[in-house]
Amino acid sequence: MQTTTQAAVETTGAVPLAEASQPGRLISLDVFRGLTVMAMILVNNPGDWGHIYAPLEHAVWNGCTPTDLIFPFFLFIVGVSLVYALDTARRNRDQHNKLIIKILRRSAILYGLGLFSALFPAFDFTTVRIPGVLARIALVFLICGILFLKTTWRQQAWLLIGILVGYNLLMQVVPVPGVGPANLEPATNLGAWLDRLLLGEAHLWKQSKTWDPEGILGTLPAVGTGLLGMLTAQWLRRRTVDAATKVAWLFVAAGAAIVLGMIWNGWFPINKALWTSSYVLYVGGIAAAGLAALYWLCDVQGYRGAWTKPFLVYGVNAITVFFLSGLVPRLLNMIKLREANGQEVGLRTWLYDTLFVPNFSPINASLAGAIVCVLIWLGILWVMYQKRIIIKV
User: How far apart are the first and last CA of the chain?
Assistant: First the structure.
């Protein structure tokens, strides 16, 4: 990692950035990214995992809660950002090899950060989780980046259709070795079998052992989410279409994707853990509609007041805050303190038990802890933003 001023920034993690004054810059994308990362910090850091409001939890299996929107929103943003970062350079084919090397390097660093986060603090390679959120971002960034350089938007659209239909057939037609007919159950579906075969149970999600929500096969439709972002960005960059028309048709396309996803849900249920084809369309449609609304407000109408600042602050250091917000609580809990009952606890747990538990009901104490976490990071990121410091990979 390295630090840089905003004027020289190209990417933050998997998310390409540029100075707001540069041609083609989308303020709406920065706001959307910041809102998404802020929500990610909120749901990933409750005070108590045993007490969480339902909208701040993932669906148990089939279905979609607000929390299930966050990760695909981020991958959608990765797709949009790739277009704005690479569209000009891709026209010069002599630059493609150089760009691919940069994409490979950034993907490797992202995966490395995810692996480090999974290993810390024990660094036990025998049980480290190989898949993960940063690992999936790295793979989607890598595959979509190369696809954008080497394919047209029409080819990308056909590829998206092929991925969604093909994934549906794989999951609901292909028998599962050692299990029997195709099924969509957590531990016995084709993706879970493939993860156990290639990665081994010791390297999967610790809460399940037998399957992983960021598994190998599910990366295929996750690339579809990135492709939706790429197609959206290429539409927004059309120079021959006025802004109002762009927004109107983007809303139409978003609505169509949502409806199609809900229809497809009838036989291939909306499911975040499996990243089903219906889920790709449903959530991708919501993401496109959200970006269209922000594009109209921020970039077309010019509403860029104080309300955008917290989201911009989060958005420009997205990967940094995501990575550190997972690391810092573990660091704090390595500092041991003794409670009044004589029990030894980590500093983070002690702070929560001291400041929140006595003053709120259990579920509201958990929510208050999560909100304070968001605000603390907002303060840190605000200082970094004011000093024009962005950490990039």
Answer: 5
Structure tokens at 55: 């909208």
Q: Which residues are CB-contacts of 97 (< 8 A; sequence separation ≥ 6)?
A: none
For 12, the 3-state DSSP assignment is strand
| Interatomic CA distance for residues 194 and 215, integer angstroms | 9
Buried b (16+ CB within 10 A) or exposed e, 359-370: ebeebebbbbbb
Rounded Cα gap, residues 73 and 77, in angstroms: 6
Give the angle subtended at the CA of 222 by the CAs of 324 and 212, to the nearest 5°. Answer: 70
Q: How far apart are alpha carbons 389 and 3 in whole angstroms?
A: 6
Degrees to nearest 5, angle at CA 384 with 379 and 388:
145
Please say whether the beta carbons of 55 and 67 come within 8 A.
yes
Look at the chain and count its residues: 393
Q: Is the dihedral of CA 237, 238, 242, 244 positive or negative?
A: negative
- This prediction's pTM: 0.92
Tell me, what's the pLDDT at 88? 86
**Per-10-residue mean pLDDT, the chain, length 393:** 40 34 70 97 96 96 97 98 91 89 96 96 94 97 97 97 98 97 97 96 92 96 98 95 96 98 98 98 98 96 91 94 95 88 88 94 97 97 93 80
Q: Spell out a b/e string for 136-156, using b for 16 or more CB atoms within 10 Å of the CB, else e.
A: bbbbbbbbbbbbbbeeebeeb
Distance CA 181, CA 190 (A): 10
Residue with tokens 């009952």: 341
- Please give the Cα distance from 29 to 35 (Å, whole number): 10
What are the DSSP E strand ranges found in the chain?
2-4, 11-12, 15-16, 336-338, 344-346, 390-392
- Can you state the angle between helices 27-44 and 318-333, rounded to 10 degrees? 20
Measure the CA–CA gap between 214 and 272, rounded to whole angstroms.
Answer: 9
Residues paired with 212 in a beta bridge: none
Token pair 């309300």 is found at: 307
Beta partners for 63? 271
